Amino acid sequence: MTDLPLLDPAADVLTLTRALVDAPSVSGSEAPLADAVEAALRALGGLEVERVGDAVLARTDLGRPTRVVLAGHLDTVPIADNVPSRLDEGTGRLYGCGASDMKAGDAVMLRLAGRFGVPGAEPAHDLTFVFYDNEEVEAVKNGLGRVARERRGWLYGDLAILLEPTDGEVEGGCQGTLKAVLEVPGRRAHSARSWLGVNAVHGAAGILATLAAYEAREVDIDGCVYHEGLNAVRIEGGVAGNVIPDACAVTVNFRYAPDRDEDAAEAHVREVFADALAAGATLTVVDNAGGALPGLSEPAAAAFAAAVGRPARAKLGWTDVARFAAFGIPAINYGPGDPQLAHTREEHVLVDRLQPAEDALVSYLAGQADRSPTDQERA
């Protein structure tokens, strides 16, 4: 049996972040960490807790007129020799797989649960905490999607905040993401008699040239600028050193602005590769998750952005705000990690980003950001 990591929501946010990073949880292997999160939340005594697969749900039921959902995924991309964590006190950086994306955000969520999920706590809103699995892999496995199918009522709220890495900024909406495989046919032959075959790898040259020449759009939506991108992320072909390849597959990833829906995104990709398709290549879409418009004009989202006191910017990447947006729930991204460090070998979080993120959320959830200062505070 795997020993559970000790997660104490009363510990400081840095200690909690380290404990989470030190508990490996690559997509599909989150169960031990989910067990530890569940145990920590149940021990608080002020939360209703439920388990749905490797997603852990917890909520208050205080009869508040509004509810805020806080969500974060427990999984990481594959480890790159960067677990356990390493704290560089000289630079104030905590290194480790998932430190930025998004165990720092999960640590803040646990801290908030420890503050507002105990008997006698008085948050201004009822709160729901959603820790879920399989965000870093294809959409069909996503734990939040499973919760939406099996426990939809748990996701109700007036505002959803995903603690994805935003470097302490408020990020609105998210891009859509499409993954497709272009397959180029050929004819196998001995490489000593290559003229008898058709080299499928050579045939993929046109696809790669199209990608290299592709000019990505930048789209301004409600002041948030989304930069699209279409890139090859994998290429496969060949069976042996003396055989002309009879097949080559190029996997492409299209990150698209939220003014396109899934169908429009697929149509655009097919248009881009029209020449290759006309020449005999095939295109198969294997994953397509639509984005979300910023939604910052919604009162609840605008109130949170105002409380943080930072101008909003676009979320470059796909996050589960798209799922909440599809339910009609205003959703934003806000977390202490740096999105530019996500999935890198040198992934880390700046220690001085942790406490401010927690403090901003505590202020908002306690209602301090919404009230006027007292005479004593003004003095």
Record keyword descriptors for this entry:
379 residues, disordered C terminus, 29% helix, elongated, 2 domains, eight-stranded mixed beta sheet, 12 helices, Aminopeptidase, alpha+beta, Alpha-Beta Plaits, four-stranded antiparallel beta sheet
Tell me the major beta sheet.
Answer: 8 strands, mixed
Globular, elongated, flat, extended or rod-shaped: what is the shape? elongated
- The CATH architecture of the largest domain: 3-Layer(aba) Sandwich
Q: Briefly, what CATH class of the largest domain?
A: Alpha Beta
Keywords: Amino-acid biosynthesis, Cobalt, Diaminopimelate biosynthesis, Hydrolase, Lysine biosynthesis, Metal-binding, Zinc
Cofactor: Co(2+); Zn(2+)
Subunit structure: Homodimer.
Enzyme class: hydrolase
Q: Can you describe this structure?
A:
The structure is a single chain. With 379 residues, the chain is of the alpha+beta class. It has 2 domains: 13-173 and 292-366, 3-Layer(aba) Sandwich (Aminopeptidase); 176-289, Alpha-Beta Plaits. It is built from 12 helices and 19 strands. The strands form 5 sheets. It has an 8-stranded mixed β-sheet with strand order 1-2-6-3-7-18-8-17. It has a 4-stranded antiparallel β-sheet with strand order 13-15-9-16. Strands 4-5-19 form a 3-stranded antiparallel β-sheet. The radius of gyration is 23 Å and the shape is elongated. The model is unreliable at 370-379 (pLDDT under 50).
